[in-house]
């Protein structure tokens, strides 16, 4: 057993009930480096043991790798899915399949504005006229509102996905949300993800095999040519690279 793995397991007695944001941030400053080289399962184990039901994972349903890993460590864990109202039917189908086949508590959250109400208030097709505002209304705010119930959240961010994410720590402090942010897959390569999917029969959004390696809302996602940056199909033709959740 590596020193980092043992260190992660030693943290299991930590509790955060009643901790302030300052105390949570201090916790992260000591733990992040210790868990940097730990296996993804150990990182999730630490988070579950530390935060209990104040910890959730998020999934955009490109695949179910993180949900599968977390369900093995903590059956019944909350999995938060943002329904923007603009998802591909394949993405909704993947969400439904995850809920039906994995021992998780899938929570679908959305903005209070329907697409029709948003069109009426901000003008038709806001994703074209102001994509940042559209993402803020349909992704960033609903997630922030939901995360108010938690002290920590896990994402499927990987450093291999884009240069913008190269510094993502496995455990860090999300100052904007005032939450501990956990990225158990941060160090995983594309090959590791594929091997885990094959070895464990993990659900994958069928669009992944149809030229969509990175899947967002249908109006803002395009197919990617073989060999191109996997995220080049997101907001193609604009300078936008992130929805704002990970800003």
Automatic annotation (TrEMBL):
Cofactor(s) this protein requires: [4Fe-4S] cluster
Classification via InterPro entries: PAPS/APS_Rdtase (IPR004511), PAPS_reduct_dom (IPR002500), Rossmann-like_a/b/a_fold (IPR014729)
Class of this enzyme: oxidoreductase
MF terms (GO), sorted A to Z: phosphoadenylyl-sulfate reductase (thioredoxin) activity
Binding positions ([4Fe-4S] cluster): 134-135, 217, 220
Stretch list, region Disordered: 228-247
Protein name as annotated: Adenosine 5'-phosphosulfate reductase
Species, as recorded: Nocardioides baculatus
Classification of source organism: Bacteria, Bacillati, Actinomycetota, Actinomycetes, Propionibacteriales
